[in-house]
Each structure stands twice: as C-alpha cells, then as structure tokens.
C-alpha cells in the first residue's frame, strides 16, 4: 500500500512518522510543496491515502485534495492541521473522501489507528474476555478513560447483544450502592464509554435512555465463540477482575 | 421583566387619576359641542390638515413595518384605528351632511364603533406586549370574541335606536380591563413615556367617545351639530405617542450600541482571562518531567495540552459552542491537570442532555475553581460532578457540584476568579442568563446554569 505525506515543515514530521510507521506493507513517500511533482506521482502510482497539511505557503491542502480525488477517485484523505478544522469546513465532495483529521501535535496512537484501518472497509474489534479484560480495535488496545466504563463495556459484551437496562447494570457494577447514588456514576461510565468509542471510531453501542444495546457487527469475542461452541473453555478465569462475572461462568 | 411577579390591582389613587382623565376628556368634548359654528368650521379644516399629515406618517410607518419591530406594528394599528374612528365619527358624518353630502348615519355609527373597539384593543395589546404581561390564549380569544359581540350588538341595537346601551356596556368593560392592565404595569414601577401617553390616549378616546354618544343619545346638551374637538384631542395624543415611541426607539438603539461595546469587551477579556502565562509554563515544565518518565505519557500530555490551547484560541473566534464540545474541553483539561500535577480529581460526568450551546470555555473556569480551591482530592469520597438535564418545561440545566471545602458565596465581593467573572459576563451578554453560585464553608459548592429553551433555539439558528 502506498501513501503520500505532504507537509512543508518536514523534518519533525519525518522523524515522527518514520518512528511510527513500522508496517512493512506500507510504502510512504514525503513531499514538500511541489504540486506538480505530487500529482505526477499520483498519476503513476495507486496511492491509497494522502496525508495533507492544510495550510502551506505554496499550496492549499484542500485544493490539492480535490485534484488528487480527481486523479484517484478511491483515494482517502487525512488532513494534518494545527487549526481547529472539521469536516463541516469542507465541501461535500472532499469531505466524503476524508478519513480523519490529525491535529498537531499528534499522538502516535491516533496515527497508528488511521494506518491500521488503511485497506480495510471497516475497523474490527477483538475482545478478550478470559483472564484480564481487554479490547482491541484493529490490533490497537482501546484506552478507556475510567475503570467503570471499561467494566460496563465488558458487561455489554457479556450481554451478547441483549438490551442492558440501567437498573441491571447498576445492580451488577455497584452492588452495594443505592440506586440514586449509583445513577450519576452509571451515567458517567456511559458518557465515558461513548466518548472512548467515538474517539476510536468504533461506535458499536446504541445509547438510549436508561438502556444500552451492543451492535455485534465486526466484533470478535472469545466468550461468544465459547458460547457458540467454536472454542473449548479457556483455562483462564472469565473476566477475573469483575465480581459479577461469576454469575455467567463460574470459576 | 418583573411585571408578572409584581402584578396587582390598581391602587385607589391611580384609578382616581384615570377616571379624572376620562371625565376631563368627556367634559372637554361636551364643551366643544356647544362651540359656535364659524369657529367650528376653522377647527374642522385644521383637523383635516393635521389628519393628512398623520396619514403620511402612518403610510411611512406602514411601509417600514415589514422590517421593524412589533411595537411599530402596534403604533401603525393604533394610528390606523384613530384615523378610521375619526373619519367615521358622528362629527364627520354631520360635517359631510353640512356640506350637502348624503350620509348613512347608522352605517357611519357602526363603522365608527368598530374602529373604536379596534383602537382600544390595539392600545391594550400594545401595553400587554410591551410590558410583557402574559395573557393566556383563551383570554385573548375571549377578548376578540367579546369585541366582535359588542360590534354585533351595537349594529343590531342601532336599528332600534338603542346603540348607546351596547356602547356603555363596552366602555364599562373596557375601563375595567384597562384598570387591570394599567394597574399591573404601574405596580411594577414602570417609568415609561409611551405607557403614559398610550394610557392617556385610551382614556381620552373613551372619555370623548362617551361625550359623543351621550350627545347622540341626547343625554347631554348639544345645541347645534357635533364637534371635531375630540378628533383633535386624539390626533394630538397620537402625535405625543409617536414622539414617545421615537424617544423609546432611540433609547433602544442606545442600548444596542451599549450591548455591542460590552460584547466586544467581554470577548477580548475572554481571550485575556482564560489562559495564564504561568499556567502555560508550569504545564510545559510538567510535560518535560513526564517525558523523562515515558514517551507515551509525554505524548499524551502534549496532546491534551494542545487540545486545551486550541480551545483557548478558539475562544477568540467563536462565541458559542455545542455543550458536548465544551465537555470534551473540560475532560482534556482535567486529564491534563491530573497528569501534569500528579493529582487525582474524581470528576463525574452525569450527562443526560447535550443538545444546546454554551459560551466557549464558560464551564471550565468553574471546574478550575473546584480543582484549585475545593480540596476534593484530599477527601476519600471527594468529587466534582457535572450534570446536565432537560427539565419538563424544556430548559436545559447544567450543574457543577463539588463536595469540597466551599466558601461563603454570600460575602461581598465573593472570592471569585477572573475566569469565573468573565464566564458569568459572557453568559449574561451572549445568552441573557446568569449562573447561580451557592456555597458555604464546609458544604461544597454548587453552580447552576439554566438555559431556557428559547435561548437554545436562538443559538441553534446562529450556528446554522
């Protein structure tokens, strides 16, 4: 897979990207700001994605994106920007090709997330429910912003697509707390879960008033495989850090 | 406005003043009736000229009405009704008769009465509108129905020559309604020329019409013909009202320019107040330390710091942002604080409703205040909670609560940061609402912000 990166201030980015891009199947090329050279290269090579700075002295990143789309209709664009720039600031044609925005300075993890989804139609999630609970989207660990939101997601996976009502979630996650005290904590966990999934670009949960529903599409989960009989029972304890897990599979 | 709260009935002295105004107008009208004929003629010619002049103003207003406010609409309506009532007044009917025209007095009487009813209703509607006295829809419908009934009764009774009965009933009802409305406005301590002039106009219209109808019904003495005196009275009053409106409009324009100035100032201060240089350098130093611990921590802190900076820069460009975005900013800020200054603040996002706007970085200062002063991180069960709810009456309520040390929110001046003062000001200037801070030593702090449904509709429009 070939990608191009266009940024007028290259040195810093170059070091950073070379450090981050470990994948051997990705071939990348840097361009400074020679538009003709870029379009020439795009004409000869099948570029999967272009990482473009928006504001450069000699060229306009958005105009360049438009030209690249005209040359390669399947190309995906990632805008690198220092500004507060969103999809709303773009016209529909360009916006439909935009994969993501990278705000400077960017984290390795958000860049990796973008790179990992290149060449895939949709991101996939893998959940490990035996032993310590962990989730991966395109092989990248999901970073939950609180322990309880992670636990709530584990419970949702355990529910296996069934509707999770607020009262059920509270009675399992906060068994010793009265309902009124636990409600704000539940809503906090819901809010954080929502933000985490949104940031990861994997919005697999429908958030309704006082209930949650998981959309199982593109999720692989060892617990579900076990339920289906696809795998035998792993030796590790099912969700070992969560007390409520005992009710589903005894240790 | 406070009118609804302070509303009460008219005091005796106010009622007395009103009655006196209408009685004087009635007496003047009756006196005019007995004026000599030649004098009367000059007065009538003058009246026609004055009326032409006001018709002109009326036309101008009518054209501008499509762009201007509701109070202009009311002015136009009042003026139109005044002119209509004057043209179809019994005086004018007689005047035309004098000139040899064939006049159907009964038809004139009915049309005159119709205009009179419309005039009084539009004056009442103006007062109700301008002083925001809420009337339930049923009452308004009832008023219109009653007016229609009065006009109908008048028309019906005029065939048997008993129309003064309908007239008296209407005028009595009008006086009662007017007393109630004026009472409410006066009680609220309004000091406003348009209010007095419109009230006076109404009182005179009632009084002079009363004198007219009394002459018509041969109740009072009217030796020869009627007079245009009351027409002049009404036109003069309309002129006064018009001037008062102009003064009022001027004041409104002044208010707008004051608002603009305040808005500019608040906006520049928003930029200046938000991020302090020492905060920038402290954060950078902390980030430097984090990099020594691990690259990942340093990268995370750099990302959060730039997110926080971006929000601050944005504060100079936009006024209102979606609540959800403000929450993202807050989350980044808290995470940065916890990371850089090695503290653990437990922040609960108790969010139920996010479909509204707030001024950019307007909630963050309250969070910052809790982080700096509440000492909730020193308590085992300490927390800062941000909640949002949609109330039954369609308002969004945001609360920022902590169970920390608190302070005396009743002391003057309360010990608040520049950030909070600026945030409060922006809420006031941009949205017309005031955050309420409640705190007492040892009892934590609670900030409540109520965003009315009207307010967020308006803001949505601004952002589309």
Average of per-residue pLDDT values of chain A: 85
> How many domain units of chain A?
2
**Under the CATH scheme, which class of the largest domain in chain A?**
Mainly Alpha
Number of helices of chain B: 16
Structural class of chain B: alpha+beta
What order do the strands of the largest sheet of chain A run in, or round the barrel if closed?
2-1-3-4-5
Helix content of chain A: 25-40%
- Annotation, overall tally of beta strands of chain B: 7
CATH architecture call of the largest domain in chain A: Orthogonal Bundle
Strand order of the largest sheet of chain B: 2-4-5-7-6
Instruction: Report the biggest beta sheet of chain B as strand number plus sense, adding barrel if it closes.
Output: 5 strands, mixed
Structural summary, described in words:
- The complex is a heterodimer of chains A (251) and B (464).
- Chain A is elongated, with a radius of gyration of 22 Å.
- Chain A is built from nine helices and twelve strands.
- In chain A, 38% of the residues lie in helices and 21% in strands.
- Chain A has two domains: 2-116, 3-Layer(aba) Sandwich (Rossmann fold), CATH 3.40.50; 125-247, Winged helix-like DNA-binding domain superfamily/Winged helix DNA-binding domain (Arc Repressor Mutant, subunit A), CATH 1.10.10.10.
- In chain A, strand 10 (205-208) and strand 11 (211-214) form a beta hairpin.
- Chain A is of the alpha/beta class and 251 residues long.
- Chain A has a five-stranded parallel β-sheet with strand order 2-1-3-4-5, sandwiched between helices.
- Chain A has helices at 10-20, 35-44, 61-71, 92-95, 108-116, 147-159, 166-173, 179-200, 222-228, and strands at 2-6, 27-31, 47-53, 76-81, 98-103, 125-128, 134-137, 140-141, 164-165, 205-208, 211-214, 219-221.
- In chain A, helix 6 (147-159) packs across helix 8 (179-200) and helix 7 (166-173) packs across helix 8 (179-200).
- Chain B starts with a helix and ends with a helix.
- Helices cover 68% and strands 8% of the residues of chain B.
- Chain B folds into two domains: 3-255; 275-462, Histidine kinase-like ATPase, C-terminal domain (Heat Shock Protein 90), CATH 3.30.565.
- In chain B, helix 6 packs antiparallel against helix 9 and helix 8 packs antiparallel against helix 9 (193-216).
- The relative contact order of chain B is 0.09.
- The interface between A and B is medium-sized, with 16 and 20 residues.
């Amino acid at each position: 897979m070939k990608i191009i990166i266009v940024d007028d201030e290259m040195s810093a980015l170059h070091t950073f990207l070379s450090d981050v891009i470990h994948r051997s199947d990705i071939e990348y090329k840097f361009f400074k700001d020679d538009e003709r050279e870029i379009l020439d290269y795009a004409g000869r090579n099948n570029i999967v994605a272009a990482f473009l700075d928006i504001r450069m002295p000699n060229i306009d990143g958005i105009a360049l994106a438009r030209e690249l789309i005209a040359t390669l209709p399947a190309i995906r664009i990632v805008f690198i920007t220092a500004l507060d720039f969103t999809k709303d600031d773009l016209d529909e044609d360009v916006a439909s090709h935009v994969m993501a925005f990278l705000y400077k300075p960017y984290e390795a993890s958000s860049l990796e997330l973008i790179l990992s989804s290149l060449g895939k139609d949709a991101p996939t999630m893998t959940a490990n429910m035996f032993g310590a609970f962990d989730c991966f989207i395109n092989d990248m660990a999901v970073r939950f912003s609180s322990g309880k939101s992670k636990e709530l997601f584990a419970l949702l996976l355990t529910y296996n697509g069934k509707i999770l009502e607020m009262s059920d979630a509270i009675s399992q996650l906060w068994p010793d707390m009265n309902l009124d005290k636990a409600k704000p904590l539940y809503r906090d966990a819901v809010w954080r879960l929502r933000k985490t999934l949104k940031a990861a670009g994997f919005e697999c949960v429908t958030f309704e008033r006082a209930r949650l529903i998981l959309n199982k599409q593109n999720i692989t989960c060892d617990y579900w495989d076990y339920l289906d009989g696809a795998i035998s029972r792993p030796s590790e304890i099912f969700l070992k850090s969560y007390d409520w897990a005992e009710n589903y599979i005894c240790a | 406005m406070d009118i609804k709260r302070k509303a009460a009935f008219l005091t005796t002295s106010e009622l007395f003043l009103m009655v006196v105004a209408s009685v004087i107008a009635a007496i003047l009208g009756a006196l005019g009736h007995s004026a000599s004929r030649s004098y009367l003629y000059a007065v009538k010619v003058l009246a026609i000229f004055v009326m032409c002049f006001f018709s002109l103003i009326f036309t101008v207003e009518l054209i501008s009405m499509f762009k201007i406010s509701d109070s202009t609409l009311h002015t136009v309506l009042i003026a139109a009704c005044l002119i209509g009532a004057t043209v179809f007044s019994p005086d004018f009917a007689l005047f035309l008769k004098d000139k040899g025209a064939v006049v159907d007095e009964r038809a004139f009487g009915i049309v005159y009465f119709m205009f009179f009813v419309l005039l009084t209703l539009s004056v009442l509607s103006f007062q109700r509108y301008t002083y925001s006295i809420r009337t339930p829809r049923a009452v308004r419908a009832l008023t219109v129905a009653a007016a229609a009934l009065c006009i109908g009764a008048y028309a019906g009774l005029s065939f048997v020559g008993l129309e003064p009965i309908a007239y008296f009933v209407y005028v009595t009802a009008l006086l009662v309604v007017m007393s109630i409305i004026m009472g409410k406005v006066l009680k609220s301590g309004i000091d406003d020329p348009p209010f007095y002039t419109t009230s006076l106009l109404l009182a005179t219209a009632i009084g002079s019409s009363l004198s007219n109808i009394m002459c018509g019904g041969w109740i009072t003495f009217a030796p020869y013909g009627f007079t245009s005196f009351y027409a002049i009275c009404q036109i003069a009053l309309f002129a006064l009202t018009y001037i008062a409106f102009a003064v009022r409009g001027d004041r409104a324009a002044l208010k707008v320019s004051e608002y603009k100035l305040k808005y500019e100032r608040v906006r520049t201060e928003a930029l200046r107040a938000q991020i302090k240089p020492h905060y920038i350098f402290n954060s950078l130093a902390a980030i430097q330390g984090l990099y020594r611990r691990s690259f990942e921590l340093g990268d995370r802190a750099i990302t959060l710091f730039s997110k926080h900076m971006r929000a601050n820069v944005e504060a100079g460009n936009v006024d209102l942002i979606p609540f959800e975005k403000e929450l993202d900013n807050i989350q980044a800020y808290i995470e940065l604080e916890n990371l850089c200054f090695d503290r653990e603040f437990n922040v609960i996002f108790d969010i139920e409703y996010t479909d509204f706007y707030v001024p950019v970085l307007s909630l963050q200062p309250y969070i910052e205040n809790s982080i700096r002063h509440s000492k909730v991180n020193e308590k085992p069960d300490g927390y800062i909670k941000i909640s949002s709810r949609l109330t039954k009456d369609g308002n969004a309520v945001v609360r920022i609560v902590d169970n920390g040390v608190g302070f005396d929110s009743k002391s003057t001046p309360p010990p608040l940061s520049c950030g909070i003062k600026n945030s409060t000001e922006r809420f006031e200037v941009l949205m017309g609402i005031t955050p309420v801070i409640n705190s007492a030593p040892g009892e934590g702090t609670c900030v409540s912000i109520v965003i009315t449904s009207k307010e967020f509709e308006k803001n949505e429009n601004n952002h589309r």
